[in-house]
Design brief:
229 residues, 29% helix, 20% strand
Length: 229
């Protein structure tokens, strides 16, 4: 795995499972977090791994430190803060179409949520957004509070992903007004410490018998569920 820590975390089999069907395509792939901390010559192991695995793709790396010295053919770096919406817009405008985003950056909940909120809408339909090292949602030294994990409005990656699970099923919840993410996420795959989120149109019609059951369950408050085009 080119010296990355993805093997030590056990992520490689999951990446192979999700990326193998698309590895020969010409893609734009962004990884947040290049590694090597402030040393301008260190880091980039994951970028080189993706370059090898995706032979037709361009690999972009984002880091808060300048890592331009590690650039090579099909590997480009950008310097900026993953928690800065203005910079993330500039980044996505510069790259253009995004097919895969991998967040292996600060692992701070607020930063993960900002990056996802800004970059997921820039993914192509069929694109995949990956968030690594979800275990930091449980660690106070990353600024998280374990007691907040069940509070969906708290800034942890796990809390955000829990709302996505509800959003996948928004058609069955007559009290939920669908968000952009509800309507544009078609699946989420959880493994220990990592999640893969797929973009697409989540607009399937509600089965007729389920719609009637929902209407019956909510008849006392006058709520009805309707099919989505």
């Amino acid at each position: 795995a080119c010296g990355t820590d993805k093997s030590a975390h056990g992520y490689i089999p999951y990446y192979q499972q999700h990326f193998e069907p698309i590895r020969k395509r010409k893609l734009n792939i962004l990884e947040i977090g290049i590694g090597g901390y402030s040393d301008p010559k260190e880091g980039g192991n994951s970028l080189r791994m993706w370059k090898t695995y995706f032979p037709e793709s361009t690999i972009y790396g984002l880091d808060i430190y300048d890592k331009s010295q590690i650039e090579e053919s099909r590997i480009k770096t950008l310097t900026g803060n993953q928690n800065d919406p203005g910079f993330l817009k500039y980044l996505s405008d510069r790259i253009g179409n995004l097919d895969i985003v991998i967040d292996d950056g600060s692992h701070v909940g607020e930063h993960i949520i900002t990056s996802f909120s800004c970059l997921f809408p820039r993914l192509q339909d069929g694109g995949i957004y990956v968030i690594e090292d979800l275990h930091t949602s449980y660690w106070e030294h990353f600024g998280e509070k374990p007691e907040d994990l069940n509070e969906i409005n708290q800034p942890t990656a796990i809390s955000m992903l829990k709302t996505i699970v509800d959003g996948l099923n928004y058609q069955f919840n007559p009290k939920r007004s669908p968000s952009y993410f509800d309507e544009n996420i078609v699946s989420i795959h959880f493994y220990r410490g990592i999640a893969f989120i797929y973009k697409g149109k989540n607009r399937a019609s509600v089965p007729e018998h389920v719609r009637h059951e929902a209407q019956a369950a909510n008849k006392n408050n006058g709520t009805e569920i309707s099919e989505t085009d």
